[in-house]
Amino acid sequence: MLSEYLINWLSRSVVDRSNGSTSRPSIALATDIGLVRKENQDRVACLKVGASSWSDRSFLVVALSDGMGGMKNGGECASIAISVFFSSLVRSRNESLIDKMRLAANESNSAVYDYYRGYGGATLSAVLIDLDGSAISLNVGDSRIYAESGVDRRVLNRLTIDDSLEEVVGGHGRELLQFIGMGDGLNAHVKYITPDYDRLLVTSDGVHFIHHQTLQDIFANVVDPSQAVSRLSALARWSGAPDNASLAVLSINRVEQLLLEAKSESLEVWDAFAELHLLRVKQEHVQVPVEAEAKAEAAILPIVKEGIVTEKKPIIDAVKVKRISRSRKKPKEPKEPKDKLQIVIQMDASTEGSDDSSR
Fold first, then answer.
1. According to the UniProt record, where is the region Disordered (predicted)?
2. pTM of the predicted model, to two decimals?
3. Which of the four pLDDT bands, split at 50, 70 and 90, describes residue 61?
């Protein structure tokens, strides 16, 4: 249910450009449709989990996915990729961080493949930071992860290699050799980020087409993550913005502090436009008569829309999403779960948080 809800949420209609209103001192996200494309097929989002019934450990993960142009429904593929990736990370327990990330990438790949049978795909670049400061990077496709040394803040190192013909075997094409949604054979690049690094930059190709030296100079001369994403987004637009431009900037050291403040039962998701706070509500299981059970199907639970408690509806009907399965058989009636997912807060941020003056 979590992955289905996130797919629906990440696929909602949004404005063409984010304004930095969901930024925090430790992390900032941004996305821009650009000046050429008619649709933004990039998705960038963050998941923060407190150690609780959701997970056996606190962690934060940032993920960026770029739907592949020329294939079916790139934006939806990117939404599925991130949603299933996040859901898998929440579910997997007693796994090493490396194994959690690899398993999540494989589940994401299978979900997109099952839906589009190889005719749709997306990139996936992600960084996971644990409560003890351990940081893991994952990359599939040609989105990128960069890191700035905590010792020498003037150098921006690229941590990933594109899964393209050009970079893997020295060819001249940008065609991807692997991507989320390809099916069998996926080998996600997963590794620890060394403690020498602190600030990280995750980008889609609509940002890193800019010359590396220029990226490095801008990144080195800003401290605040929101200012960094604002200036780099503006630079992409000033450079013609031929593609969707999405990015995330985060500080490993500051994220550690953010995790220490995480509420024990909270699960938070946010993108460049809005944020979502979820609680898992435990309910007692009681035996009820058949007549009462029929009435229970219309039982009411509060839902939240744009920060306001609205008309009460069955929680199972509050979220309508496309199923990942292509099967058209009538689904079986769902059994009453022991735990229910309740949407506690959803708010669309509207404050201005950017120092970008280009419009």
1. 326-359
2. 0.80
3. very high
